[in-house]
Specification:
The protein is mainly beta. The protein contains four helices and eleven strands, in the order αβαββββββαβββαβ. It has one domain: Porin (Beta Barrel), CATH 2.40.160.
Length: 228
């Protein structure tokens, strides 16, 4: 039994090495957050816009030559968030615009289908899930008085964990260089930034009652991967 386990492990490692490639990936994210509020007037006043960020890290791709169906796993530093604006008559006009930025360590796990044409050019598609852990964040408020930059304390206002699904595709050159487009949607409904909610007041100057907020992220990314 012990010898059979060692033999099976050896075969799996050999197969992964024979058909697997490690790659270096870099790219640009266009990220936004989907916000939901408990009051319609506040929800209408909150406008989310895209925030341009980055992604960089390592990936491992396992691609058998015959079937072309394999998988990918990675470890990426990625930046998500959104630009927000308050411009409703129901809200005091002290906060004009700002942006919310979060840096994550993200682990994508995807199934991949690769079709190669003569070993020179190929196309591929991928779909899977991801998990992410927030390292640090920053919120910048632009007001008619001053600009406030605040480093976030995650334990006080949000969950560090994010997860969701993604899909995409792209082209490959010489089985070494991959240009990909990918879209991902977060499923984690995490607590929104309470510092933003503290800025929201009614016309009388009081805090908005019973106001709760949740948000999830969505990201469109363009990446370039070099496989060794």
């Amino acid at each position: 039994m012990k010898n059979r386990f060692i033999f099976t492990t050896f075969i799996l490692l050999f197969t992964a090495t024979a058909f697997g490639q490690v790659g270096l990936r870099g790219g640009i994210n266009t990220a936004s957050e989907i916000h939901s509020f408990s009051q319609n007037d506040i929800s209408a006043a909150f406008q989310g816009e895209n925030l341009t960020g980055y992604q960089v890290g390592l990936v491992y791709q396992f691609n058998p030559k015959r079937s072309g169906l394999g998988f990918e796993i990675g470890a990426l530093l990625t930046q998500k968030g959104s630009v927000f604006r308050m411009d409703s008559a129901n809200i005091v006009q002290s906060l004009i615009k700002g942006y919310h930025e979060i840096n994550y360590v993200e682990v994508p796990m995807n199934l991949r289908l690769r079709l190669s044409f003569g070993g020179i050019i190929g196309v591929f598609g991928s779909a899977g899930v991801y998990g992410a852990y927030a390292l640090r964040g920053k919120t910048v408020f632009e007001s008619d008085i001053a600009t406030l930059i605040q480093e976030e304390s995650f334990d006080s206002f949000m969950n560090r964990i994010d997860y969701g699904y993604s899909y995409g595709g792209g082209v490959e050159l010489l089985k070494k260089i991959q240009l990909a487009l990918q879209w991902s949607q977060g499923l984690q409904k995490r607590d929104a930034n309470k510092n933003i909610l503290d800025k929201i007041t009614t016309e009388s100057g009081g805090l908005a009652p019973n106001l709760t907020a949740k948000s999830s992220s969505k990201v469109f990314s363009v990446s370039l991967t070099y496989l060794f």
